[in-house]
Structure formats: C-alpha cells, structure tokens
C-alpha cells in the first residue's frame, strides 16, 4: 500500500485515475457489490440445528455473489508478453523536433506528458520467472494532449520475422510445444530452433537473443526500441521515416547465465521487485529518447530496406538524435486494473506521426486492437489505465459489453441534424494520413532487399567484445543442447557458419553437430557502433540501487560493518545484512544487529556485491558455514565485487582459491585484484577503488 510514498503526484494521468480510485478505508463496512452491508461473511446460509449442519441454501445471495465473483476473476492472459510489470512516469522534451513533425509531444518543450510503461518477457505464461533468456517488451503509452501514443517496443532493435503473417507460426514455435506444453519461459526446445533454421530471416534477431541482451540485470538497465519504422510529418507536409530509441541512464547491464537460471528459481519476481523498490526509494529510472531519421527520398539509398524490421539502421549512416527523456516515477496502486488491463496498440499514433509500409507494422496494426477485444472486451479503451487524458468523444463508437461511459443526447450517428460531434479539420488538430502515392500490382512478395538475411547478423557478432562472444557461444550451445532431435541441432549448428565459422565449430562440438569446415557466407569482419552493450556504460559509474550484502555472524567487527553500511547507503546502494540468524547477531564489542535475512534465506545471486567485515566471526562461524563460504565462491564465479577487511581477507582468499588474487597484506591499506577488494584500515576508501561515485 505504501508503494507510492516517493512518487510524483503532479501528472495529469494520476489525477484522471483518481476518479476511479478508492482508498481501502478501515472503518467502512463491508458490503455486497450492490451495496447492502454484510453481517456475516464467514458462514453460508443453511438449514441447521444445534446438533447437525444442514444443507446450504441457494437463497444465500451473499455467498453466491462472493463465489461467483471469484470464479470469474481471471481474464485471458496476453497471447505473448503475458509476464510483465509496469509503472507510471513522465516524458519531457529538451529539444523540439518541429523540423520533422507537428506532433505536440515531440515539439512542445514546455510539456510534461504522463505515461505508462510495461516491461515483459515474451514466451512464458503470466506466472513465469522474470530472469529467463528472452526478449523483453518495452511498451510505452504516452497520454498526450492530442490522444494516446503507444510505442510497443522491445529491448532488442530487430525482430524475428519480416511479415506479420508469419507471427502465429513464429509464436507457436517458441511457445510450449502442443503435445505436452513444455517448456515454460524458454526457447531451448526443438520447435523454436526448427523454426529458426527454416526461416533464415530470424538470424539477426536470433544472435541478439543469444547475447547477454536477453538476460538483463534489471528492466532499468536495458534499452528500448520501437523496432518498426514509422513516419514523422512536418508542417510543410514533408515525411521522414523514423525509428524510436530509449537509452537508459544507468547503462545496459546483464546477468550471467548461471545467475539468471538460479534467480529464476530463487526469486521469480526479481525484476518486478527491482523496479518497484527503486521507484519506492525515489531512484527514478530514466531513459534518453532519440530518433533515427531517414528523409523519404532517401529510402532506397541503403543496401538493406529500411522498412525491414529484421535490420537496424546503422548509426554510422543514420545517427540517433536525442531529444527527450522518459522517467518512471510512480508504482501502480493495484496490479490488475492498472497493469494487467493495460492495453497497447501500435496503431495508436497522434497527428504528426504516421505509419510506414513496414510489413510487420501493418499486421501489428490489426493484431493489437483485435487481441484487446478478446482479452478485455469491446470497451477496453474506457478502462482507467487505457483512456486518454485529453477530451475524447465519439457518438458512433458506443455500446458493447460493459459500456461504462454515459453519453447524453438523442443521436448516435454522423452526420446528424444537430451537427453534433463534428470532425476536426487538420487546422483544428484532425488526424490526416500522409498522402503517399501508391502504384503497384497485388502480389504476395516483399522487395528484393528483404531477401538478404546474414550481413547484419555478422556485423552484430563481429562488434561484440570477447566476453560477449563467449557468452553468446555458450547460449547457443545451451539452447541446442536442450534440443533432442538431431535434425534440429545438427542442421542448426551448421547454419551458424553463415555468421561465423569459428562459432559454428565451437557450437557443433558442444552440441553434437558435424563440425563445419567452410563458412556458409564469407564474414569480412565488419563492425558497427552501438551493438556491443559495453558501449552503454553510464557516463558516471554509480552503485545507487545496487544490492549489496554484508555477511555477519556473532563476533563481527561492528566498526567496519557500520562504516561500510553507512558509506554504501550514502551512495544510494540498497544494503542488506545477512546474518547467521535473524533473532540477532552480536558484535565483538557487544552491539546487537538484527539482520535482514539469515544465511540460508538468501543467495549471493540476488546481490550485486558482498562485503565481509573483520572480527572473530570469521573464525567462530563463517569458516564453518558452508552457505557463507559458497556465497563468496559463487559471487566470485559470477564476476561480482567481493570485499573484506582484516580477518576477512584470508577467509575470502581461501574461498576463491586462486593464487593470483592478490590480497592486502597486513599493514597495506588496499588491494584490488579480479574484482576482490581487500584491505586493512580505511574501510570507506574501499568504495573509491573503482571510483564508484554517488
Ligand atoms: Fe507484439 C504484445 C512487442 C510483433 C502481436 N508485443 C506485445 C507486447 C510487446 C510487443 C512489448 C506487450 C504489450 C504489453 O505490455 O501489453 N511485438 C512487439 C514487437 C514486435 C512485435 C517489438 C516487432 C516489431 N506482435 C508482433 C506481431 C504481431 C504481434 C508481428 C502480430 C501479427 N503482440 C501481439 C499481440 C499482443 C502483443 C498478440 C499480445 C498482447 C497484446 O498484443 O496486447 O497482439
């Protein structure tokens, strides 16, 4: 209930939703949905005597209502992107894009536009785990003064298929298989990889999906992309094609695969809790908003077709122009009405923005509206989270199940004798489609350039760092290892040679394919900007909102514990004390600390770094505790910073078991080696080893 404590309240959408928001008031009596007060909610009405419990009565309207409402609580989950979470926020422009569009949201720098953003995974059901390997949805609904504008994007800039007609095949192949509904939250199965092999257009996206992009550390630490090509139209009527970008202030960071797998079981809600707690603590996540623009007349100037959603627009050719900032600053008050019922449509655009002939977008423009009708009913746009904040009125679109709005008046058609509800001219803000000239024959074909499927996958792979390439090789191997049909894993591992022979050989060896000897397509080693996630480190390193564990047991050194805790908290880190028991842990000097969790209640995977203060607790308890010892080993294996002082120094060194790790010798202030920071003396100075500022 306290989740909005630190949130901003000034935005118009919040005020709009207040009309339908009720406080849970402790003093208000319980009623039925039709308003009568209930005297006994715990017993059904029945015929009974002192000695026997008689049959329940159908007459009991109160029990019937309660059970019937419960029976109908569920609505169909989203057919894809079922698992997700969202938050409200704001969008502000710092530079007007009036040279390319008339859209108020992209030209008026004095505005603050309220918005809702829902993050999601694609494959799993509503109850699946957050940290699975998957594409993440990044769906933004901006409640602009001219109507809602939805950007229904992902954290990966390209897509699996080029034509929307392939979407049902693609989704069926990746979702759990039809005969046994397995697997959940994973693409590591025969049908998905069979589809990938049979559709070489998936190659580029498949490489992004096998990269660390598909296992983000946090929703707050990933990019957002509109993916499809839209149009912007300016007041002279000139059109630019556009792609939308959101770049996170915190940088792009990922888990390692072993962590992701473990967290999926240890805390399936890891990402949604991470988002909620950052917002609650007032650390509002931010993304810079940018445009890539291609003037209409330059559409044919590229070796790829800019309307093909399986291709990026290389930043060297089409730079990103950053013009605004998106911030998330308010958690929802109730998940079901505000997140589960949130519904996005790629077709929701505002004047100044238009579609393109991107064949994926055109199909999406049909699919989203359609799916909302089956999920939420015909009047889904009236729901508080979905309705616009600007005035809206249609005399014609009305009725249907669960109509909520009451429109006065005697006519429901246009034109009518009163000229009521007239259309708006363009000068009055009426939407007009870009008058694109069309000339062609009906055909089931795409332009020639859509047929090239490997170039950009090669450039993506070439642009990754060695570490990212290693992770990608492991991801391919993991996935194909989970395919048990040799037809699938053999021919797919061979196909990898269309991007990199070296990678294909490695994968074939791991998964039992036949080692390819020839590249299926020559890779000329070309690289490009903006593809490796290492390029997206935050300008100033920060530990704000990172989860840091401090391990303590009876006999710990209170002074180094407190100094580190206070210094971490002052820099905005979320500090958790993990102790031998939650009843309380007593320091060498007698102070009692009640830890947040006990050793077996948490795992190192759920933290970004660990600190062990000095003190006798090492000899007394930590060296004898398998969980504490494994905590250090596992953190190190996951490449996380581990720090310790005084008595903790040899303890940490021993768990890590690497001779090369240099630990601070007694008397030396500080040593950092392989991410392990050890020292004797100034505990606060440890935080400056890597210049991690506030
Ligand atoms: Fe989609 C949901 C993103 C292609 C059909 N999609 C959905 C969501 C996201 C995306 C983020 C979740 C929205 C939410 O949070 O409620 N989808 C994409 C992207 C695509 C894409 C970035 C490629 C550029 N989608 C795509 C195609 C089709 C669909 C080609 C159909 C032809 N998508 C749907 C859907 C969903 C959906 C079935 C399920 C729930 C919903 O729409 O509201 O209509």
From TrEMBL:
What is catalysed by this protein? 2 H2O2 = O2 + 2 H2O
Q: Where does heme bind?
A: 368
Cofactors that this protein relies on: heme
Identify the enzyme class.
Answer: oxidoreductase
All residue ranges annotated as the Catalase core domain in the record: 31-422
Q: A GO BP term, please?
A: hydrogen peroxide catabolic process
Described function? Catalyzes the degradation of hydrogen peroxide (H(2)O(2)) generated by peroxisomal oxidases to water and oxygen, thereby protecting cells from the toxic effects of hydrogen peroxide.
Concerning its family, UniProt says:
Belongs to the catalase family.
Which protein, by its recorded name, is this? Answer: Catalase
> Organism source for this protein?
Penicillium angulare
Q: What is the lineage of its organism?
A: Eukaryota, Fungi, Dikarya, Ascomycota, Pezizomycotina
């Amino acid at each position: 209930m306290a989740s909005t404590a630190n949130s901003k309240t000034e935005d118009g959408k919040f005020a709009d939703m207040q009309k339908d928001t009720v406080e849970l008031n402790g003093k208000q009596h319980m009623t039925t949905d039709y308003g009568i007060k209930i005297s006994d909610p715990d017993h059904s009405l029945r015929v009974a005597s002192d000695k026997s419990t008689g049959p329940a009565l159908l007459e009991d309207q109160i029990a019937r209502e309660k059970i019937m409402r419960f029976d109908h609580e569920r609505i169909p989950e989203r057919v894809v992107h079922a698992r997700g979470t969202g938050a409200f926020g704001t969008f502000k422009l710092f530079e007007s894009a009036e040279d390319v569009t008339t859209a108020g949201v992209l030209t008026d720098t004095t505005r603050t536009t309220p918005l809702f953003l829902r993050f999601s995974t694609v494959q799993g059901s509503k109850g699946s785990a957050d940290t699975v390997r998957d594409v993440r949805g990044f769906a933004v609904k901006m409640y602009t003064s001219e109507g809602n504008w939805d950007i229904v994007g992902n954290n990966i800039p390209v897509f699996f298929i080029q034509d929307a007609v392939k979407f049902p095949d693609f989704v069926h192949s990746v979702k759990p298989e039809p005969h046994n509904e397995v697997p959940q939250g994973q693409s590591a199965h025969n049908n998905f990889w069979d589809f990938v092999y049979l559709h070489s257009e998936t190659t580029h996206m498949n490489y992004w999906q096998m990269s660390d992009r598909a296992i983000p550390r946090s929703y707050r630490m990933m990019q957002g992309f509109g993916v499809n090509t839209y149009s912007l139209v300016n007041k002279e009527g000139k059109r630019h094609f556009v792609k939308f970008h959101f770049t996170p202030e915190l940088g792009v960071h990922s888990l390692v695969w072993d962590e992701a797998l473990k967290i999926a079981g240890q805390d399936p809600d890891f990402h949604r809790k991470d988002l909620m707690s950052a917002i609650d603590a007032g650390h509002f996540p931010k993304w810079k908003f940018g445009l890539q623009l291609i003037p209409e007349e330059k559409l044919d100037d590229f070796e790829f077709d800019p309307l093909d959603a399986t291709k990026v627009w290389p930043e060297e050719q089409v730079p990103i122009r950053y013009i605004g900032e998106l911030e998330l600053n308010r958690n929802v008050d109730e998940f079901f009405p505000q997140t589960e019922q949130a519904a996005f449509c790629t077709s929701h655009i505002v004047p100044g923005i238009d579609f393109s002939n991107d064949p994926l977008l055109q199909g999406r423009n049909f699919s989203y509206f359609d799916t909302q009708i089956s999920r939420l009913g015909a009047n889904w746009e009236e729901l508080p989270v979905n309705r616009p904040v600007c005035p809206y009125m249609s005399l014609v679109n009305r009725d249907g199940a669960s109509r909520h709005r009451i429109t006065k008046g005697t006519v429901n058609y246009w034109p009518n004798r009163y000229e009521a509800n007239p259309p708006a001219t363009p000068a009055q803000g009426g939407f007009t489609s870009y008058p694109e000239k069309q000339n062609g024959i009906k055909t089931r074909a795409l332009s020639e350039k859509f047929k090239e499927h490997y170039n950009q996958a090669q450039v993506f792979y070439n642009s990754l760092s060695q570490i990212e390439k290693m992770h990608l090789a492991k991801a391919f191997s993991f996935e194909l290892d989970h395919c048990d049909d040799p037809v699938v894993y053999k021919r797919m591992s061979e196909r990898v040679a269309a991007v990199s022979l070296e990678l294909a050989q490695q994968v074939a060896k791991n998964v039992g394919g036949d080692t390819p000897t020839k590249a299926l397509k020559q890779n000329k080693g070309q690289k490009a900007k903006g593809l490796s996630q290492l390029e997206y480190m935050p300008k100033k390193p920060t530990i704000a909102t990172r989860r840091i564990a401090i391990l303590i047991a009876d006999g710990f050194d209170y002074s180094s514990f407190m100094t580190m805790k206070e210094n971490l908290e002052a820099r905005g880190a979320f500090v958790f004390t993990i102790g031998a028991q939650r009843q309380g842990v007593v320091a060498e000097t007698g102070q009692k600390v009640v830890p947040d969790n006990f050793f077996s209640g948490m795992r190192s995977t759920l933290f970004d770094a660990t600190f062990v203060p000095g003190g006798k607790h090492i000899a007394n308890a930590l060296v004898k505790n398998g969980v504490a010892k494994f905590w250090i080993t596992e953190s190190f294996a996951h490449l996380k910073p581990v720090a310790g002082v005084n008595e903790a120094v040899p303890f940490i060194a021993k768990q890590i078991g690497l001779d090369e790790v240099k630990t601070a010798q007694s008397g030396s202030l500080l040593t950092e080696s392989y991410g392990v920071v050890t020292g004797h003396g100034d505990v606060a100075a440890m935080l400056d080893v890597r210049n991690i500022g506030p």
